[in-house]
User: What shape does this take?
Amino acid sequence: MSVRHALLALLSEGPKYGLQLRQEFETRTGDVWPLNVGQVYTTLQRLERDGLVDAEGQEEDSQQKGYRITEQGEEELSAWLRTPPDLSSPPRDELVIKVLVAATLPGVNVHDVIQVHRRYLVELMQQWTHLKEDESQLDLGFVLVVDAELFRLDSVIRWLDAADGRFKRAAVDGQPMPRLPLPKPRRRMGAIT
Amino acid sequence: MNLELQNVSKLYGEGSNEVQALSQVSLRVDTGSLVAVMGPSGSGKSTLLTIAGTLEEPTSGEVLLGGRAVSGLSHNDKARLRRRSIGYVFQDFNLLPGLTALENVSLPLELDGVSAGRARVAAVQAMEQLGVADRERHFPDQLSGGERQRVAIARAVVGERSLLLADEPSGALDSSNAEAVMRLVLAACRRGVAAVVVTHDAQLASWADRVVFLRDGRIVDQTTPPPSPESILSTTGQS
Assistant: This one.
């Protein structure tokens, strides 16, 4: 999440002081994202320059200044919330490449390579899941961040499971394994417009 | 109650129809711990569970429950062990349709010779722990999927059960209900039950203290106990 839009979101609740914005930014991101504090103030100055927030008061120190979101700022925030992030597949996914290469190399058991990655991912998921074990300590924002990570890791494991199954069936059917050089990755899909 | 499988193998069929469902499987599950067994369909997960629960006998190898070899027990002793010490949770719940939720939960105790009154008290207690005590008079078809699964878990942990065996316990439940199921299983473990959950679902498995991977009837790998949760937070945000 960009600091810019996080600050606009905080200001959409009502006018706030610079110091207050900094503190709220830190608490609301649940200590999950490390924050460069100086960035909060530089960003506030830029937002003011771009007409997305208005500064109140004459103080030079942006900690003491009050900020209010402008109509243009509200529009910017609303547009940002509805703009899909770039989820189109990266041109080269390292794990996909590793599994494909493992399948091409003589003397390498692709199922063993897949299992190494599967175990690592499940161990990561165990760590994330343990974070939500104590229900009484749970903050909704934090749980959503943990869930997002778990679903992401889970989808990678599902791909590994599917790949495992495909290699197994290919071996039974006598289908050839992929060969080097690997197929060229498809052109990266542009955002839907 | 500790569960231990020592070099357990299971063959079905004969000659050209022979299928090796399990091959030299060794697994130890200590009291108070939750172990998940992950593997694709046909990897032997359900066979492992039915053998651990004494519902089937291994072709070779030994199952030890609380340190006692199951092969040395009589048919009746095994049946008593199943009624008294082992709880099963199945994917499709397996509640008896003609009985109320409460009767379903108290049934294993009554079959074991516990008086109806005592069985009822224990059943209500188990249902309270699982948040379904207000559904005691309902029949299974009057319960939601999540409630049915809670009743099934109550039945599995009622009384003094010390081993909980679950086969895809979240069934077709949505992710929040599936999480609730795993919290219940984990809570039972923290009270001193040993539990084995077999699943193909990594999100369910990630609740376990240890995850064991089964492939073609063999244990091929397992996770190491996860490091402290804080370690993962200190690395987030760097990517």
In short: Chain A has two domains: 3-82, 94-173. Residues 94-173 of chain A form one domain.
